[in-house]
Design a protein that fits this description.
Number of helices: 9
Oligomer: single chain
CATH superfamily: NADP-dependent oxidoreductase domain
Largest sheet: 8 strands, parallel
Number of strands: 10
Order of helices and strands: EEEHEHEHEHEHEHEHHEH
Low-confidence stretches: none
Shape: globular
Radius of gyration: 19 Å
CATH architecture: Alpha-Beta Barrel
Distance between the termini: 13 Å
CATH topology: TIM Barrel
Mean pLDDT: 93
Helix content: 25-40%
Strand order of the largest sheet: 3-10-9-8-7-6-5-4
């Protein structure tokens, strides 16, 4: 396993694994028993960072934060409250209207308080805001987060699906107000090239402009969809001509060129496609980058972990 450090709200640093375990379907499509097995495997392989969100699974009628609930239960059952680095997110818009902002003081504090209660842990290591609202001043948002950190056991804050210029503006305000800044950003980033706004135009995808901005900022950059939804891992034809109809739009010239480079490199170097795709993130020479992997099956997680082992020993 590879590790890096992340800055906490008090200026100290924590050591965490560059591979981060995602948990969108924990407690729903992935049963608690299977989720426990995945987290056991991840921990035993040296992984210590788990990403969740209050919204995960809450879209199912009658459910409230089953992913957070499952992770909290596992951490308590294994006695790992001090060892595991837990990241969660709040202030997600209502699922029926992704453009409806939930970044008021009341929304931020309510979601953070519920996450603390549902996780049932002595701390949340990193708390993200799940979306931005560019019409709301960063002073309001950072003030609400500062209040949450003073009231609750939240040790650091981050931004998910925020553009780099807004993060920079928010951190400039935090410095002027002597409060904790954002120390991490979570955005869609993969060797696979996603079209901007694909699936949801409130998502932020790494592009050349964002990448250049991050080089100049002291942030941990967490890549979700880091394996490109498995596009380059499923053995398609080199020209992606056999993609299923529903994802045929992904067969762009750029993706075909990238896929062919991957196929050539994996054959020449004798490495797995998973290793190549994950390494695109974790070995980035300019950023403190981490790859978030959301696996639906034990075998998928095993492949991701083996990819990290290959990286370490190549």
């Amino acid at each position: 396993m590879q590790y890096t450090t992340i800055r906490m709200g008090d200026g100290t640093e924590r050591k965490i694994s560059r591979l981060v375990l995602g948990s969108v379907h924990f407690g729903t499509m992935i049963s608690q028993d299977d989720a426990f097995r995945m987290m056991d495997m991840f921990w035993e392989a040296g992984g210590n960072a788990i990403d969740t969100a209050r919204v995960y699974g809450s879209w199912i009628p009658g459910e409230e934060a089953p992913s957070e609930r499952t992770i909290g239960a596992w951490v308590r059952a294994r006695g790992l409250e001090k060892e595991v680095f837990i990241m969660t997110k709040g202030a997600h818009p209502p699922m029926e209207d992704m453009h409806h902002s939930r970044l008021s003081r009341e929304d931020i504090l309510f979601d953070a308080e519920r996450s603390v209660e549902i996780l049932g842990l002595p701390k949340i290591d990193l708390y993200y805001l799940h979306r931005d609202d560019v019409s709301r001043p960063v002073s309001d948002i950072m003030g609400s987060l500062d209040e949450a950190m003073r009231k609750l056991p939240i040790l650091a804050i981050g931004a998910s699906n925020w553009r780099a210029d807004r993060i920079r503006e928010a951190n400039a305000f935090a410095a002027s107000a002597d409060i904790a800044p954002f120390t991490a950003s979570e955005l869609r980033w993969s060797y696979v090239q996603f079209p901007e706004g694909f699936g949801d135009d409130t998502l932020v995808t790494m592009d050349a402009q964002e990448y250049t901005a991050y080089i100049r900022m002291d942030l941990a950059v967490m890549a979700y969809s880091s394996q490109g939804n498995g596009l380059f891992l499923k053995g398609y034809a080199p020209d992606l001509s056999d993609l299923p109809e529903r994802i045929r739009f992904m067969a762009t010239e750029e993706n075909i060129a990238r896929y062919r480079r991957l196929l050539a490199a994996t054959k020449e170097q004798g490495i797995s496609p998973s290793r190549y795709v994950i390494r695109h993130i974790t070995d980035d020479p300019n950023l403190n980058a981490l790859a978030l992997v959301g696996c639906s099956k034990i075998e998928q997680l095993k492949q991701s972990l083996e990819a990290m082992e290959e990286i370490e020993h190549v």
